[in-house]
Amino acid sequence: KYENFSTNKKHIKTIMANNHEQFIAFHGTITASNTKRQTLKKNRDAIRTKIRNHFKEHWPKKTQPKFHWQGSYSMYTLLNPIKDEEGLGAYDLDDGVYFIGSSEEERENVQWYHDEIYKAVKDHTSEGAKDNAPCVTVYYADNHHVDLPAYFMVDGDKHPKMAHKKNPWMDTDPRETTNWFNRKTEHPQLRRIVRYVKAWADYVNNQGKGKMPTGCILTILVVDNYTANKRDDIALKDVLVKMNKNLNADNGFHCYRPTFPKNEDLFEHYKESRKNFFLKELKSFANDAEKAINTSNQKDGCLKWQNHFGERFSCSTAKDEEEDAQKKELS
What we know:
Layout: H1 2-6, H2 20-30, H3 34-58, E1 65-70, H4 72-75, E2 92-101, H5 110-121, E3 129-131, E4 136-139, E5 145-148, E6 150-154, E7 161-163, E8 168-171, H6 174-182, H7 189-206, H8 215-225, H9 232-248, H10 272-294, H11 298-309, H12 325-328
Parallel strand pairs: 2-5, 2-6
Antiparallel strand pairs: 1-2, 3-4, 4-5, 6-7, 7-8
Helix pairs in contact: 3-5, 7-8, 8-9, 9-10, 10-11
């Protein structure tokens, strides 16, 4: 009777390596702690005070700055970065400086905003600041930095314009992107999957072989390809496989912004070499993710994940033994 039952395949569930436990531990490793978030917030507030005081002192009759925290900090997807040889990690933060005037006539030229913000913060830290094309950046000794893009909008308008030196007064609204992501009902797993994908990109970038897409692009791609699952390893595998399939489809290499400016393709200006590098890394990761899920040995599966995350993805708790489908799962 048992022999007949055991050979009836419809009664046997396939055993797959379950690395959900290792992923949850990894998430704890890569997620910025509340203490670190508070330190970064304190640094941000000090920069804001410097900028406010500068404009009050030197330009009291002009439009005064307001601020909007944006990017991974405001989406709660901030990562602990991979540490360098000195034990430091490069946190990349983004705080928008907004000038809201009563009319277009109050707007100065792009370089003026860059110059005045730079003057306000250039001596704020021992590492100094730099005026880049999209923003002014303040650097810290612990290797993190804060980007300060400037925006202008007329009071009552829905969207601001960004003071970008290479693309003056470009249409963009990071506030909408933050709100779009934070309104998602799939949290908290969705945030974990975004962190895993960004941690993979961080690891690849640190290998020095090429440059991965930005955190903003990766976040949009995850949302576009996400399906919830009770296990994080399966949810991530599904995202990677679907993303790889969609981006490799005929005329499929696109990442359309879901917010203003709607349907802007964030891959539009990618060089062929950068596109091919990303697709190669993605294909490799997606293939190994499928192998990791389909293996019956938890340790083997874990090591396949670790190959794309680095040693921060620990396999110390993964069991090095084969699962027996007939003994473990009979319905």
